[in-house]
Design brief:
Helix content: 25-40%
Number of strands: 9
Oligomer: single chain
Organism: Gimesia algae
Pfam families: HTH_5
GO molecular function, one term: DNA binding
Protein name: Transcriptional repressor SdpR
Strand order of the largest sheet: 1-2-3
Keywords: DNA-binding, Transcription, Transcription regulation
CATH class of the domain at 33-102: Mainly Alpha
Order of helices and strands: EEEHHEHHEEEEE
Number of helices: 4
Strand content: 25-35%
Shape: globular
């Protein structure tokens, strides 16, 4: 019986190696496929892309996002939860409101001055506003 397990290296590149029960490397996942797929899946709904686009301008409360998108608060809250669990946004309490922002590791600006979303495995270039 072969037993396989995965470890993620903390230092270095952060690559994931899959080992067989005998300790030999079976494969090396340089893309961190599981993590990348989770982030891309979270972006798989148009409303979530619209939320990300709004948050590029700075943090916003759930009710503000819902108003801007002309969506129900409960619907926006659901989609923000998915983005939060995929580590694409952060949240904090401000009084009785929950305020969301793009995760600092996701939003970046390239050397050419273009804004993009960096997922570690791939980047999504964002059009200028």
């Amino acid at each position: 019986m072969r037993i396989a397990w995965a470890i993620q290296l903390v230092e270095g590149t952060g690559e994931i190696f899959h080992f067989a029960g005998d300790g030999k490397v079976m494969s090396k996942d340089r893309l961190q496929s599981d993590l990348c797929a989770e982030k891309l899946k979270a972006l798989g709904e148009p409303i979530r892309l619209r939320i990300i686009d709004l948050l590029r301008d700075g943090e916003r409360a759930v009710s503000d996002i819902a108003e801007q998108l002309e969506e129900e608060v409960v619907n926006v809250s659901h989609h923000l939860g998915i983005l939060y669990h995929a580590k694409l946004v952060t949240k904090r309490k401000e009084g009785r409101f929950v305020v969301y922002n793009l995760h600092p590791e996701v939003s970046a600006v390239s050397k050419a001055g273009k804004q993009h979303l960096d997922f570690g495995c791939c980047r999504l270039e964002v059009p200028d506003k």
